[in-house]
Design goal:
heterodimer; A: mainly alpha; 8 helices; 82% helix; B: alpha+beta; OB fold (Dihydrolipoamide Acetyltransferase, E2P); five-stranded mixed barrel; 2 helices; 6 strands; globular; disordered N terminus
Amino acid sequence: MELLQALHDAGFAAALRRANLFYPLLNAFHILSIGIIVGAIGTLDLRLLGAFRTFSLSQLAPPLSRMAAIGVGLALASGFFLFSVQPKAYAANQAFLMKVGLAVCGIANALILHKTSAWRQALADGPVTVSAKAQAALSLTIWTAAVISGRWIAFVD
Amino acid sequence: MTARFSRPAAAFVLAAALTIGTAAYAHHGWEWAEETQTTLEGTIREIYIGPPHPTLKVETAKDGLWQIDLANPSQTARAGFAEGSARPGHKIVILGNRSTQKDQKLMKAVKITVEGKDFLLYPERIQK
């Protein structure tokens, strides 16, 4: 709670509350980051599930994974500053908490997949295993739910 | 991770995401609020001025703490309501449109009067 208050009182948080321009810009940047995540990881998930078969995973997976990781980094950075404007309100907002939980699950799911032999096999253009497909389906579901939860932050008490 | 595990997990995530909707409201637009304006009187407990949306928490004698949505940050500033315009403990009268959901203590203000001073958030919408 003290940490949240300290964040609320930080100079940049106060500046964001006062400035007319920065908050909407930051907001747009956050949306852009989410677009990068979902666009990249969604395409990769669909490829793992069997779409776009003419394009090899050895070619597609590395850039799509990296773009998704960049999107996550940008979303975290912009999200931190958006959060700083009203830390206590967001920390008590159920939709916000659910979104953060889902994002953590989505990131964990991706990190776990990258450690599996199924992933190395897929990267070598071998057959995509059922477990890798299941994780791809889970990833699509989690990130969609995370976006829905995120949008819901403004609509719950 | 197996397919057997991930399917219920996915179903749970979806169900959870959908249940959040039950307590939904929107500070955008007026569709969620009553057409007729009403007046609310109370004491300011909390003030938030800034993006994404300025709000007040106002305690009424009758039924406790209400959330008052002001106009967007620019419109609220144009109405003259800024940091220092009000403090917790000040008496306030709010003219506005309350949520159509009777159990929700939420009102969108068109005019607020703090310690006798008027702030016209939506001058063109004032009905009386």
